[in-house]
Each structure stands twice: as C-alpha cells, then as structure tokens.
Amino acid sequence: xxxxxxxxxxxxxxxxxxxDAELLVDGSIQGKHLGVSTxxxxxxxxxxxxxxxxxxxxxxxxxxxVDDGMINKLMANEGFIDxxxxxxxxxxxxxxxxxxxxxx
Length: 104
Hints:
- The protein is mainly alpha-helical.
- The chain is built from one helix and no strands.
C-alpha cells in the first residue's frame, strides 16, 4: 500500500446496467437545466426567454416593450433616411438648374 493513501470502506454499492442512449421518440425530457449547442423545433411554448442576443426575421406579438435605445435607433434611422431624401431632392433641383443654365 502506498504511504500517501488511506484505506477506504465502501458500503451499499449498487451495480446497474449501462444505459443504451436510445433516441426518445414520442417521449419527453424533463429537468431544470439542459445544455446543448443547437435546438431545432417547429414550435416552442414557453413562459419567458432570456438571452444576450436574439436574432429573428420577425417578432410578432400583441404587446412589445422596447427601451429608449431602440427608439433612439429607430429615430436615427428615420433621420438618416430623411437626410438622404433631402440630399436627393437638392441634387435633382441642382441638375434642373444646371440644365436650364446650359439651355440659355
């Protein structure tokens, strides 16, 4: 016996058959925590979802709560689009003016 080890007593030892890891079909998985890299489903029913980043093509709902950051981003985008239209209108007017000057 190694001088750095102590004797160990084991009692109530139970030996069971190893699980075969078959795929659950028409069954359920229940637990408090589930660790996976990807979940693919057609429909999910849940009470809440938490995440740092959620990517979606569309989010639909009866109620949508947004913060000031999202409102500011929408307003900034609207201002940018307005600015583009203003510049486009200015350029069109300038082109008309140049054409009229060239005709004279």
